[in-house]
Amino acid sequence: MSSSNRTGPSTLTFILTGIPGLPMSSYWMALPLCCLYLLMLLGNCSLLWMIKTDHNLHTPMYYFLFMLSVADLGLSLSTLPTMLAIFWFESTSLCFDACIVQMYFIHCFSAIESGVLVGMAFDRFVAICYPLRYTSVLTSSLIMKAGGAIFMRGICVVIPVAVLIQKMPFCRSHVLSHSFCLHQDMLRLVCGDVRVNSFYGLTAVILTKGLDSLAILLSYMMIIKAILSIVSQEARAKAFNTCISHICAVLIFYVPLIGLSIIHRFQKHLPPLTHTLLADAYLLVPPVLNPLVYSWKTKQIRRRMLILLCWRGTQQQV
Q1: Comparing C-alpha atoms, which of 103, 112, 33, 12 is closest to residue 72?
Q2: Is the torsion defined by CA of 60, 66, 69, 70 positive or negative?
């Protein structure tokens, strides 16, 4: 292809896509999106506030939950500008640099959330398999180091992805498949050799979400083995009940992620609506549902939430 058809990064503008089949100015779609984002902000900020202010919640399990809420907030806020711009203001164009920044933060916080889920799986493993050593193994120092390592891994592993794609020429259609920028979606518009980008992108996924999912699976295999060795049925149910919230969080995060990855690589002939809905579910559903799941299944958080709601009601009456 001639160089005249190639677009340099300095002049490149991507066109984002809303939901296929819907008009761009669709307020009945924008309003639910706003409600989802408000629910996400309220739920995660409430969790962060409760864990920070209640010293009874200063335990390893809630420290990891604090990190999960931070990752959820980062993931949702990364998509917020373009999602609302499309459905409220019909603004679909996004310059190359802004698209790179958004892509970086989406994949960065996604890798961080995956790492936090591994930390939470390890927390449940120690609590059930070695309950007497729980406080001596999961010390505050270890949690801080693990949290730092999780965040640094997410930050560093995505940097080469952003650097590599900045060097690529774009000469095909500049229309993206989603309402935000994803690496695999941008990569399909490149007209040069994408083998290095594709290989590193796949390697990054394997080193983060691939290894993380195996670590979570291994943890639960040992947890199930430990639970089955408990004689008392009541004790078994109690031990398993402490894992339900984490299992829900893992399924909420990994099921849309795996589905989206399979579709992007092997099922490209499917309707565009399928790609869009899975991508939206992958980025919007976990940040909204995680606070609800943990508020519903965790007695301490549920009690604090009720106290907070009652206090707000009293203040409004006054």
Answers
A1: 112
A2: negative
CA 85/CA 19 separation, integer angstroms: 13
Tokens of 90: 């019909």
The pair phi, psi for residue 7, each rounded to 5°, is -110, 125
Distance CA 162, CA 156 (A): 11
Whether pLDDT at 137 is above 80: yes
Q: How far is CA 278 from CA 178, 297, 312, in A?
A: 10, 26, 37
The answer on pLDDT for 24 being more than 70 is no
Per-residue tokens: 164: 């590599």
At 13, which helix (H) or strand (E)? strand 13-15
Beta-carbon contacts of residue 198 (< 8 Å; ≥ 6 apart):
187
Rounded-to-10 torsion of CA 17, 19, 21, 25: -80
Q: In this structure, what is the dihedral angle of CA atoms 83, 87, 93, 97, given to the nearest 10 degrees?
A: -20
Q: Tell which residue, 202, 165, 171, 158, has the closest CA to residue 186.
A: 165
What is the structure's pLDDT at 2?
A: 41
Q: Which residues, 6+ apart, have CB-to-CB distance to 224 below 8 Å?
A: none
Cα–Cα distances in angstroms (integers) from residue 51 to residues 59, 207, 290, in the given order: 9, 30, 15
Tokens of 93: 């164009």
Nearest CA to 176 among 256, 94, 111, 77?
A: 94
Residue 310 CA to residue 157 CA, distance in Å, equals: 44
Give 13's strand partners: 95
Q: How far apart are CA 260 and CA 275, in angstroms?
A: 7
Q: What is the pLDDT of residue 1?
A: 41
User: Distance between CA atoms of 123 and 121, rounded to whole angstroms?
Assistant: 5
pLDDT at 318: 46
Tens of pLDDT, residue by residue over 153-165, are: 999 999 999 999 9
Please state the length of the chain.
Answer: 318
